[in-house]
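Notes continue from the previous slide.

Worked example: a multi-chain complex. Inputs as given:
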Amino acid sequence: EPEVTQTPSHQVTQMGQEVILRCVPISNHLYFYWYRQILGQKVEFLVSFYNNEISEKSEIFDDQFSVERPDGSNFTLKIRSTKLEDSAMYFCASILGQGAADTQYFGPGTRLTVL
Amino acid sequence: SQKIEQNSEALNIQEGKTATLTCNYTNYSPAYLQWYRQDPGRGPVFLLLIRENEKEKRKERLKVTFDTTLKQSLFHITASQPADSATYLCALEGGDMRFGAGTRLTVKP
C-alpha cells in the first residue's frame, strides 16, 4: 500500500541553525500538509499546499517557516533559525484531492530536537 | 474562538466492553468530522469520516455519531480489545484541519 515517507526520522540541531525536513507524499496526491506535535500536546496544523502554492497557514507558520515542492516528489519544510520551542514531531500528510470524502494520509514523522 | 474538546484525557475499560469517546466543538460549522488513531511516536491513522448530513457511520467494530445541533460527535469501539489501546483524535475541517487533544484509551485484559 502506498505511504507517505519522511526523512530524517530524528534531527538534532543547535538553536539558530536552519533545518529542512523532507517528505515524499503519495505519488498521485495533490494536497500536502505539515503538522507539528509538541511532546504530550495535540497535533497542530501548520500549512497546506496545493498547485505549488500555500493554500492555508496557521498562526504558528510565521516567517521562519517555508515550504517547497522542489520536484515532482519531494515536499519540504524549512525552519530558518530554529528555536528551542520548535522541538516537536513534525508530520507530513497528503490527500488525493480536496473533498469531504478524502482521507488524509500521515507520514511517520520527524522528531526535531533543538538544543 | 474555535475550540475542539475531547471529554477526557484518559479512559480505562475492560476488554470486551464498549468504549465511548466524546468530541465537542464550538464556533465551527464543519462540513465533516474525522476520527484518527495515534500510537506513541507514530503519525495519526485515519479511521472514519462523517459528514454533517450523516447521523451515524459504522466500520466493523467502530461507530461514529455526529450531532450538529449539540455540536458533538461520539466515537464507539464495541467488543474492545487490548490492541485498541491508543490515543484517539477527532479532527474538524474549517479551512484547515484542527485536531482535538485526544483521549488515551487503555483496554485492560
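Summary box: The first strand of chain A starts at residue 5 and ends at 7. Residues 4 and 20 of chain A are 17 Å apart (CA to CA).
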